[in-house]
Amino acid sequence: MSSRIHHAGLAQKVMSGADAAAMIHHGDNVGFSGFTGAGYPKDVPRALAGRIKAAHDRGEEFRIGVWTGASTAPELDGALAEVDGISTRVPYQSDPVTRAKINSGDIDYVDIHLSHLNQYVEHGFMGRLDFAVVEVTAITPGGRLVPSASVGCNRTYLDKADKIILEVNAWQPAEIEGVHDIWRNETIPNRHPVPILHPGDRIGTPYFEIDTSKVVAVVETDAPDRNSPFKPIDDTSRAIASHFIDFLKHEVKKGRLPKKLLPLQSGVGNIANAVLDGLHTSPWAGKGLGAYTEVLQDGMLDLIDDGTFSVASCTALSLSPEGVERFNRDVVDYLDKVVMRPQSISNHPEVVRRLGVISCNGLIEADLYGNVNSTHVIGSRIQNGIGGSADFTHHGYLTTFVTPSTAKGGALSCIVPMVSHVDHTEHDVMVMITEQGLADLRGLAPRKRAQQIIDHCAHPDFRPLLQDYFDRACAGAWGQQTPHLLGEAFSFHQRFMETGSMSSR
Amino acid sequence: MSSRIHHAGLAQKVMSGADAAAMIHHGDNVGFSGFTGAGYPKDVPRALAGRIKAAHDRGEEFRIGVWTGASTAPELDGALAEVDGISTRVPYQSDPVTRAKINSGDIDYVDIHLSHLNQYVEHGFMGRLDFAVVEVTAITPGGRLVPSASVGCNRTYLDKADKIILEVNAWQPAEIEGVHDIWRNETIPNRHPVPILHPGDRIGTPYFEIDTSKVVAVVETDAPDRNSPFKPIDDTSRAIASHFIDFLKHEVKKGRLPKKLLPLQSGVGNIANAVLDGLHTSPWAGKGLGAYTEVLQDGMLDLIDDGTFSVASCTALSLSPEGVERFNRDVVDYLDKVVMRPQSISNHPEVVRRLGVISCNGLIEADLYGNVNSTHVIGSRIQNGIGGSADFTHHGYLTTFVTPSTAKGGALSCIVPMVSHVDHTEHDVMVMITEQGLADLRGLAPRKRAQQIIDHCAHPDFRPLLQDYFDRACAGAWGQQTPHLLGEAFSFHQRFMETGSMSSR
Fold first, then answer.
1. Is the Cβ pair B192, A194 closer than 8 Å?
2. Whole-structure pTM over 0.90, yes or no?
3. Which architecture does CATH list for B2-221?
4. If B344 and its partner were Cys, which of A314, A451, A476, B118 is the partner (CB 3.0–4.6 Å)?
């Protein structure tokens, strides 16, 4: 018996990834673990991809529905997309091969709020779930599962799937046991309040409790997660972070934020990391802050270590290779400072609203009136997905978006007359920040928002074009609430498609 | 002392509406009561409008910020807009004069979620609140206020305003005392769960508790609310209602809804009323349903009276003249079946999500991919506002939108290639219903949603045009996740502006 599999019955189910994958068939829906490249199964998906390729080579159909927590890794999304093995992808992805197949129309992609996923699956809105394929760190003598480096939607998949395949990954530190907090509400219509009053509150147990009779295979692995390195912080990110932190100080001064702030949520990526770095290198004048967020990032480890943060709640690790080494080495020290929850709880509207989260997310483009596109390039082509951004933006106390003012070497303006896809409406976006400055949109009517965004957020190269559009829209639009010239609302995008640049020069 | 003013100190503050209005000055922000034409002050706003007109006639500036619960009536919105007395209007309106002045650019309109308003005001995001002008039904000997026919944002306005003007309206039935449930959470960061587990749960007291020393005037009135008659139910509304109810039955059969359903929310208007009428005239096969909704409508009285509904939670009445007569006459019988709450609670994301509300709202236009425009005509011109529609749509268990497939005698298609304004994103909209049929969008990728909407929701006159756009977008778009041709995404709208019809004939 492996040192990680302490349940006698389940130990007898140990087999190879290939044997386990052989149970999965064309048309099945499979709920895989995995969130931001942490805690996804390493072996079964690759074996399954091989099996799918062989079937295709024989001229047989073989495609499955791939449901996860969020993004995964080349070994899962990449391998299955590469062999055209995915019919439907739910609820988020960031994989280059998967993305290409979605944008060529070969994969159906259902891009839904991460906090909604649990309800969709639990109540059968997505159809039947045939398999859960879930990485865990260990199996206890009683058959309980110690989760891995992400929780994601695993509890729901384990509950709802007809059959369960477990991967027990010896690479994950055994000492992670205790960091997770798994809670299950009553089912509707008997749901109770989620009893979280502070980011660090523990309300459940550190284990998945499952029906062990559903387990058809246990596969042993010893393989690292995909952990992407951060780029060094550049001047643009540093400028954005500085505007963000100055704004927090301003809000404290105005009495609209306590000195200890409110729990922070921070999207994935380099700008978010620059913000966290800013709070660490110019220490915040107060200790005991907290994070109620989706993923644990490198910058948060620094802030926990220096005492700025007392706790961080999340659903997954999203660390650099150095960050994960540090976390895994010192995991025992982090057990009382990190809580890893199901994504339905880490992103729960109820808790986000109650705690008054300060949200900070990136975007693809924003428009003059504060609408935000987080998902689509030029309106049609998916980038990643909405993820949890709306879970925090619709419910936060103070909702901010951060972005460089331009992209692609200055060819794209991230501020456009009208966004080509809307993921966050004007009603939800309070503050817009670029390296140029910050626009506080709270309480402003649309025309006033537009002037703030042009003056403070747009890049000087695009400011005259935006001002020209706005002025002409104010003169010629069908109404003055949200002046638009529908015939040229996408002129920036069309110019980009025609010339490779949104600029008119 | 009036029979409605039982507090000695406040009885001494009784004065005319004109004397009370004389205390309000240019630049003040005023929080008025009023929600869907119920419970707004009848006298002070008109007197104030007279005072503003006189000031303008003398060449003096005089404009105020007008904050309410939601829409009001000609005596408030109309009177103040008519004399150009409104600088900023928050958070919702449906008044023709106000709407015209917003669309001409004379009034700044901040259109925000009704569930967010309380937080915006409480934490000073909107600036200082100078006055609360609130209609009540009575004042108790201890100085507590019996609310009127709406609660709206009154508690917050009474708490936050520097000064309070009360209107005591003898037209409202004194027996309404007890129907309201006023609850106050701790302030952030000490907020607790909202302890509502069932739509009828009472968690507070039936009174506003105020600092009586802030009351500067009490005005006695005896005047009816604005109560708009419903149009007789037409065939289109009946067809939409029938699709909606058939769908509920289908979901019960599939085991995705309990036989007693889940709490219903229903937008204002004739289609919503047709749905309620449908549940009454072909009785639902089960009793004890409930409503967790924004406003109490005529159809709900029928459903309460026939036992289909055991309870309805709301923040305001929105009844016809006959409906209000019936409610006021039998109010004692409704006291244990109707709960009227602050709009921050009637629309609270936490409760809507926990209870699993089935939402049903109208719209201006929807697009192929399920994005919904609830607010703007041809992208720029405001109609009413988002109101509470997103409070229920973002958090509901089952979220539906209902609309005739065409408007303006067939000149406008309510299904367009791309909506000209987005209030509800593709991520939140589950079911689309027109008189043509129903599209269940749950779990569908965007291209599949589009075909469902064309086939089941679009009017036959516009179906070929929509199919043509969709087919060419699938052939020529920049990506296949959400195929759009940005150069002609608004061609329907442009044709309407040029020819008066979206049709190409």
1. no
2. yes
3. 3-Layer(aba) Sandwich (3.40)
4. B118
